[in-house]
């Protein structure tokens, strides 16, 4: 009986082997390898955008605190949460809550 070897799409001799793709054919491994490269590039951009959002949020918070106000502005947070929920559904709310925590810390 032939033993199935999972196709990983890993290039021989690569310095670090990628995580197994789970594919059962070289063709599927190729598709997965290419798509994962795009996902990694997208994740890098998303992380960069999150960091940019954190910096802009800090400008807003510092201006408000410097004027005697508070760090947290709940009405604005409700707008942000609605924005994400309207675009992404219920999990969007969770994502927005995580973003807000990254931007202003835990409340
Ligand atoms: O828009 C503001 O007033 C902000 O301070 C920015 C921000 C945000 O990161 O979106 C952060 C903290 C506030 O509680 C509300 C929103």
TrEMBL record:
Chorismate mutase domain mapped to chain residues: 26-107
Keyword GTP-binding: no
Entry keyword annotation includes Isomerase: yes
One Pfam family named in its UniProt record: CM_2
Matches recorded under PROSITE patterns: CHORISMATE_MUT_2 (PS51168)
Low complexity bias: start-end ranges: 1-18
Source species, domain of life: Bacteria
GO biological process: chorismate metabolic process
EC numbers, comma separated: 5.4.99.5
SUPFAM superfamilies named in the record: Chorismate mutase II
Molecular function via GO: chorismate mutase activity
Keywords: Isomerase
Ranges for region Disordered: 1-27
Name of protein: Chorismate mutase
Taxonomic lineage from the root: Bacteria, Bacillati, Actinomycetota, Actinomycetes, Kitasatosporales
């Amino acid at each position: 009986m032939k033993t199935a070897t999972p196709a990983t799409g890993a290039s021989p001799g690569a310095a670090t082997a990628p995580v197994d793709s789970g594919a059962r054919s070289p063709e599927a491994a190729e598709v997965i390898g290419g798509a994962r490269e795009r996902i990694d590039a997208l994740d890098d951009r998303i992380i960069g955008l999150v960091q940019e959002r954190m910096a802009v949020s800090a400008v807003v918070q510092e201006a408000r605190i410097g004027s005697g106000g508070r760090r947290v502005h709940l009405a604005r947070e409700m707008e942000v949460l609605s924005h994400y929920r309207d675009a992404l559904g219920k999990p969007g709310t969770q994502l927005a809550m995580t973003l807000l925590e990254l931007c202003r810390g835990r409340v």
